[in-house]
Amino acid sequence: MEKIALLGLGTMGSGMGQNLLKTNFSLTVYNRTASKAQLLHSRGAKVAGSPAEAVQEADVVLSMLADDEASRAIWLGENGALQASKKASVLIECGTVTPAWIEELFSAASKRGSALLDAPVTGSRTQAEAGELTFLVGGSEAELERARPILEAMGKKVVHVGPSGSGSRLKLINNFLCGVQLASLAEAIGWIERSGLNQEVAIEALCTGAPGSPMLKTMSQRMLSRDYRVNFLLRLLEKDLRYAQKDAQRSDIPLHTAEVPIQLLKQARNLGFGEEDMSSVIEQFRSGREFGSHGMRSS
User: Fold this and answer.
1) Are 223 and 295 in contact (CB under 8 A)?
2) Of 3, 111, 171, 217, which is the active-site residue?
3) Looking at residue 229, what is its pLDDT?
4) CB-based contacts of 112: which residues, under 8 Å, 6+ apart?
């Protein structure tokens, strides 16, 4: 059984680690905030004090970090994972990062003699915990086959998108489309509420009609119930849309329709919803501030 290192135990990484342990992989974990490793430690994972320590014996190294900056620090920073990893290991970046950073990391890994896959996921906290993620993989097909059993322990589907960077690019396209839907839904529900339409009747008609999508159905219910427990952090979706704009510009696509969701997410973050679920973007269209953390009514 191959030894695995998992770097990053946030909303997604924690669920991924739990499923690796359920499949009886040998797992070593690292997280900058050590307390987040306690759950996995209690279930059998080893806890390392640095990225370098975590990867020393690993055959496969998984990273699930929030952005380019955090990924760079884990891989190339002080006590970084890349230089300490075994040259024959497979390195897998699962975070939503830019293809430009993947290009740089791929080059650094290749010079060291290691293989790198970019394998960002679709799905949120619920899918991570249930082992139902979809992995969008860029890189060598041969290395993917070596890593496939590990990815399948955490997900329901593994899609080989193309060469290095392809997975990261498709993930940004995916989140761009999600962001546009989320923004239009927030405005629509704000419109429904202020105009006095029956909310349940209106949302049912929309969800079962032409606009209906899995995201519309899920997000509309969270918005109506004001349940903002984190499945996907609002501030991270804003980051993803900015990354999407940056990468689309490399293909001379201005991505005009990303501007509105970016501005709405920024406004929601300025109102204090940055650490809430992305569905909280709706709150800027509601009067008053009677709702506190996670959508619960303040006393």
Assistant:
1) no
2) 171
3) 95
4) 82, 83, 85, 87
